[in-house]
Design brief:
The complex is a heterodimer of chains A (about 110) and B (about 110). Chain A is mostly beta strands and about 110 residues long. Chain A is built from no helices and 11 strands. Chain A is globular, with a radius of gyration of 13 Å. Chain A starts with a strand and ends with a strand. Chain B is an all-beta fold and about 110 residues long. In chain B, the strands form 2 sheets. In chain B, strands 2, 4, 5, 9, 10 and 11 form a 6-stranded mixed beta sheet that branches. The N and C termini of chain B lie far apart (about 35 Å). The model of chain B has no long low-confidence stretch (mean pLDDT about 95). The chains are: A mainly beta (about 110), B mainly beta (about 110). At the A-B interface, strand 4, strand 5, strand 9 and strand 10 of A face strand 5 and strand 10 of B.
Chain lengths: ~110, ~110
């Protein structure tokens, strides 16, 4: 069965370290998205991609980067982790014309 | 002011009650309206999808959109304990498979 997987499920890192969160989907979806979810803010868009080599900034992109070298993967990199980036991160994908997203199970990141 | 406003609750109802969940929005360009359900420590899953104004029914769930008032609703009939979750409204100008803006989510508890 097709799926979207995120890894790791939980991570603790130190302030200033570079961190990469993985997102892999086998739906063959063109569109992939990264959101963060925080109490009081809900889901906020970090970066998104509509295809290979296409990336776009969302509303909270500062301190984050993505690259899309193939259809299946959209890794999210925190260049220099900050405590404000402690959050739950969700990856999602969608196919052209689909009604909505398919979400991964999330990565809970703690920056200490 | 946020583009999408949603009361975070929590909302507690007895089993069998009719539940009404609502969102307001400010962006007139939104034409695609969705409701996602999110169980604790899981990714959101698409529940309902509506294009433009009108009603859509799926089993115990009814979604309503009033674009003139910039107001959307989700009704749950004969609520069950298994409906206990956070419900997120979501909206897009270009389709549910493209960039989507989410509400903060309303936490619902259905008490047996």
């Amino acid at each position: 069965d097709a799926e979207i997987t995120q890894s790791p499920r939980h991570k603790i890192t130190e302030t200033g370290r570079q961190v990469t969160l993985a997102c892999h989907q086998t739906w063959n979806h063109n569109n992939m998205f990264w959101y963060r979810q925080d109490l009081g803010h809900g889901l906020r868009l970090i970066h998104y991609s509509y295809g290979v080599h296409d990336t776009n900034k969302g509303e909270v992109s500062d301190g984050y980067s993505v690259s899309r070298s193939n259809t299946e993967d959209l890794p999210l990199t925190l260049e220099s982790a900050a405590s404000s980036q402690t959050s739950v991160y969700f990856c999602a994908s969608s196919g052209q014309g689909a009604y909505g997203y398919t979400f991964g199970s999330g990565t809970r990141l703690t920056v200490v | 002011q946020k583009e999408v406003e949603q009361d975070p609750g929590p909302l507690s109802v007895p089993e069998g009650a009719i539940v009404s969940l609502n969102c307001t929005y400010s962006n007139s360009a939104f034409q695609y309206f969705m409701w996602y359900r999110q169980y604790s420590r899981k990714g959101p899953e698409l529940l309902m999808y509506t294009y433009s104004s009108g009603n859509k029914e799926d089993g115990r769930f009814t979604a309503q959109v009033d674009k003139s008032s910039k107001y959307i609703s989700l009704f749950i009939r004969d609520s069950q304990p298994s409906d206990s979750a956070t419900y997120l409204c979501a909206m897009s100008a270009a389709g549910g498979y493209q960039k989507v803006t989410f509400g903060i989510g309303t936490k619902l508890q259905v008490i047996p």
